Amino acid sequence: MTQTTETPMVELKGVKKRFGDLEVLKGIDLSVDRGKIISIIGPSGSGKSTLLRSVNNLEVIDEGTILLDGVQVNRPDLKGLAYEKHINHIRQNMGMVFQHFNLFPHLSTLDNVTLAPRKLKGMKASDARALGMELLERVGLADKAQVYPSALSGGQKQRVAIARALAMRPKVMLFDEATSALDPELVEEVNLVMKGLAEEHMTMLIVTHEMTFARDVSDWAMFMDGGVVVEANTPEHLFSHPDQERTQHFLRKHLGAQA
């Protein structure tokens, strides 16, 4: 991907990850400019979710370097409390949204959104409440502020999860198959929120099986298979004129059209 002289927001250099004898990531390089949206597609087991989880150290890589805004994420030289402090600082600058919403069932929608800013950043309750309401308005759920997760649809829960991630004012948002657990009619409401973030130039890495969404929202698209980046290009090129046979086969299957 063409870079400016500005420090990339996210950078991976030679990233490798094994689970036992299985090499899941085989030397991944990636550079993401600030304000850009990168979509990562590929079959199940290709390594794409492991790659995303490695960016915020939910998976500890075996080799390589991961940088967030010039700061190294993986720090094998740090141990104990120093390591925990470093990782907590890194994660405060990364919002992550998973397949499953992981909302606290005993907290209201608003309290789910405001918990982290209050506990981790020491934000005053009144300021956190104002921020929480602003973010719930942003995702179209201000009227659900006092509702508990059990009363929300799957799409609403995922939008709350996005608001919760945004409440930490992250530098980058990571989406790991954010719509894959949703009924088809609920997918679009979550995609619309993500499209809104793209229009605001939020840096995003998106692992998705929604090919049309990836094509429409991304600045750059990557196809992974077998732990490697098979092909990466602009979405216009990757989805319409892929160079590699593996990419062509995958897109024929998932787009239902000749790739």
Automatic annotation (TrEMBL):
PROSITE patterns: ABC_TRANSPORTER_1, ABC_TRANSPORTER_2. The keyword Acetylation does not apply. CDD domains: ABC_HisP_GlnQ. This is Glutamine transport ATP-binding protein GlnQ. Keywords: Amino-acid transport, ATP-binding, Cell membrane, Membrane, Nucleotide-binding, Transport. Pfam families: ABC_tran (PF00005). Residues 10-251 form the ABC transporter domain. Belongs to the ABC transporter superfamily. It is a peripheral membrane protein. It is found in: Cell inner membrane. GO terms for molecular function: ABC-type amino acid transporter activity; ATP binding; ATP hydrolysis activity. GO terms for cellular component: plasma membrane. The keyword Acyltransferase does not apply. It comes from the Bacteria.
